[in-house]
From TrEMBL:
Transmembrane segments: none annotated. Residues 247-624 form the TonB-dependent receptor-like beta-barrel domain. This is TonB-dependent receptor plug domain-containing protein. It comes from Phenylobacterium conjunctum. It is a multi-pass membrane protein. The keyword Membrane applies. Coiled coil: none annotated. It is found in: Cell outer membrane. It comes from the Bacteria. The keyword Signal applies. Keywords: Cell outer membrane, Ion transport, Membrane, Receptor, Signal, TonB box, Transmembrane, Transmembrane beta strand, Transport. Pfam families: Plug, TonB_dep_Rec_b-barrel.
Length: 650
């Protein structure tokens, strides 16, 4: 490994000298913040690049895709892309875990408008996709594979970069509303404009549904309500200096079924949870050297408040109380040496804090568990064309954690565009690093002796364009060491970690897993004028490679096969229709592979009609075949539903 890192360093150092002699023609630096142009990819290199220059596997969902899908929640939209799966504890708004290439949900970095989302008070500090809805989202980039070099701790599985809409006119707005099955209703509105030096946008959305029973065999419906607000503004102070302000706020209330005493068996009950999330960003952008050197200094803040309640409890109705905060300062720069050579570099300082408590009838006012951690980092990446059509990317990152010391990570990628760009060969290798979360270290189930999770990820693929048809194939592999899992304690266990301050506890977190994942991603897309067809297939083989009873078993809730098909047709008479089919193969719900969840197929139909140039009515049928399925054992799923709505632009 040291040899690889030394080689990576040498490559970056050598690359830095090449452009000065290769080409005297200088191009403007890539815009580190501009993700609105569909033909450019930002997430892979943290600077806008043509897709043919990127060696990593990336999928893009643009505003047109979201509109055609008539999507409300983003989870299903993301799961329609290669390598992405999810599990959910019930209906809409229930706890949702999303996985990329079989990695843990806490090993995925989620970014909204430049701010990394994570909840230090959650089990694995991962993002809960339950409260993530389309709202004012305009574009999503899904970057697959270990990406910790640029995106830091957690990016072992990949990165999901979400960008909200920006206005393009002096004044504009959008409104939409829909209703349908399960007493569901959703409304959205947004206004914005472009003035002389100010660009601004405000948006709001609300969703309600009576839902389905979280308990698969329950009779009581568990409803959900979500309210979201977002805003962004950019002020051009001078021609070369601008300031950004962005914020996203959501509040969700979800009803769920728990495990009531004394039997701790799954059943209908009146429990519910409330979650408030705030994402805020302030940045200053400065362009120097005729725009070749671009600098960004920014502060990002996230906070997540979670509370669970059980109205049937006599002593205290609150059963869980948690708050996670993250403060992040960063500097990012990019420099364009020539048209084909550029560098990205930066400094980051992140401070995470958490507070958790679990009140009960025995301890209605427990002393909360509190903890904090500091993580500082420096990174650099060079991207350049070393031969006609052949682009290499090399990067290094140095993390300094106040508990786990220093870690150096490397990344290499290559993209070779052949036949005037009709064929692109890609390959990448990256290292991942994730420090134990505050919850895993210091909660009631914490273990202060944990080690960081570490991973190596590889992939190689080919993309070929034949007229209006594009096909892609990618092979991937990942090896993760020191993966952290929860270890249960029995009533007779004598293990020292089963006791805290002399009292027995239900379990603890420990580095018990060595996991592997490999697979194949295939996709094809054809634009036949009025008809768009897209299909993908993913085979994922996961393995628990740690010694013990579960060695060689599949990782829980990772389907071995997934396939998606979408067909959209514009009939040329103001009518458009669409079909989506999603197949999810069998998976196991537990590490011992004793409970198998059956494969399932979901079919959706949709249609839209343009009443005028600015007003459109639309409708859809979800889960047309009313397939009953499980993504988590004993939890309910969303059945057939019909919805109709209207949307307008002004």
């Amino acid at each position: 490994m040291k040899t690889v890192l030394i080689s990576t360093t040498a490559l970056i150092a050598s690359c830095a000298w090449v452009p000065a002699f290769a080409d005297d023609q200088v191009a403007p630096a890539p815009d580190v913040a501009d993700a609105a142009v569909s033909e450019l990819i930002v997430t892979a290199t943290r600077s806008a690049q043509d897709p043919s220059r990127i060696g990593q596997a990336v999928s893009v969902i643009d505003a047109g895709d979201l509109k055609r899908a008539q999507a409300v929640g983003l989870t299903e939209v993301l799961a329609a892309t290669p390598g992405v799966s999810f599990s959910r504890n019930g209906g809409l708004g229930a706890s949702t875990a999303l996985r990329i290439r079989g990695a843990e949900t806490g090993q995925t970095v989620v970014v909204i408008d430049g701010v990394k989302l994570n909840d230090p008070s959650s089990t694995d500090a991962g993002f809960n996709f339950a409260n993530l809805f389309v709202g004012d989202v305009a574009r999503i980039e899904i970057l697959r594979g270990a990406q910790s070099t640029l995106w830091g701790s957690q990016a072992i599985g990949g990165v999901i970069n979400i960008v909200t809409a920006a206005p393009t006119k002096a004044f504009e707005g959008q409104v939409s509303a829909e209703g349908g099955s399960r007493d569901s209703g959703a409304v959205r509105a947004a206004v914005g404009g472009v003035a002389d030096r100010l660009t601004w946008r405000l948006a709001a959305n609300q969703l309600t549904t009576s839902g389905v029973s979280s308990y698969a065999k329950g009779a009581e419906k568990d409803g959900y309500r979500n309210t979201g607000l977002s805003g962004r503004a950019t002020l051009a102070i001078t021609d070369n200096v601008s300031a950004d302000l962005r914020a996203v706020w959501t509040k969700g209330r979800n009803e769920f079924d728990g495990f009531p005493a004394p039997l701790y068996s799954f059943a209908d009950d009146p429990e519910y949870g409330e979650t408030k999330e705030l994402v805020a960003y302030a940045g200053l952008n400065v362009a120097l050297a005729d725009g070749r050197l671009k600098n960004r200094v920014a502060f990002g803040y996230t906070t997540t408040d979670r509370d669970n309640f059980d109205p049937s409890q006599a002593v205290t109705t609150r059963t869980f109380d948690a708050r996670g905060e993250n403060r992040r300062w960063e500097y990012q720069g990019s420099f364009a040496f020539t048209e084909t050579w550029s560098a990205a570099f930066g400094l980051e300082s992140e401070r995470a804090e958490m507070r958790t408590a679990s009140p009960s009838a025995f301890a209605p006012n427990p002393t909360p568990s509190r903890a904090k951690a500091q993580l500082d980092a420096v990174y650099a990446q060079m991207i350049g064309e070393v031969a006609p059509g052949l682009t290499l990317t090399a990067g290094l990152r140095r993390d300094s954690h106040d508990t786990f010391g220093d870690h150096t990570l490397g990344q290499l990628a290559a993209a070779w565009a052949l036949n005037d760009g009709a064929t692109v060969l890609r390959a990448s290798w990256g290292q991942g690093f994730k420090a134990p979360t505050l919850y895993q270290l210091f909660s009631d189930y914490g273990n202060s002796g944990l080690s960081p999770e570490e991973a190596d990820s590889w992939d190689a693929g080919v993309e070929h364009n034949i007229g209006r048809l594009k096909v892609q194939a990618t092979w991937f592999s990942r090896d993760t060491d020191n993966q952290i899992d929860f270890v249960s304690c029995t009533g007779t266990s004598t293990e020292a970690l089963c006791f805290k301050t002399g009292a027995r506890r239900f379990g603890y977190y420990d580095n018990v897993a060595h996991t592997k994942a490999k697979g194949l991603e295939l996709s094809a897309a054809a634009d036949l004028g009025g008809t768009k067809i897209a299909a993908n297939y993913t085979w994922t083989d996961t393995e628990n490679a740690a010694p013990g009873a579960n060695q060689g078993k599949k990782l829980a809730r990772r389907p071995d096969q997934q396939a998606n098909l979408t067909v959209d047709r514009d009939w040329g008479n103001k009518l458009s229709t669409g079909l989506s089919v999603r197949y999810v193969g069998a998976s196991y719900d537990n590490a011992a592979n004793t409970y198998r969840m059956s494969p399932y197929t979901l079919v959706d139909l949709r249609a839209a009609y343009a009443v005028t140039e600015s007003v459109e009515i639309h409708g859809r049928i979800e889960n047309l075949l009313d397939d009953h399925y499980e993504t988590t054992r004993n939890y309910g799923s969303i059945g057939r539903g019909a919805f109709i709505g209207v949307r307008a632009n002004f």
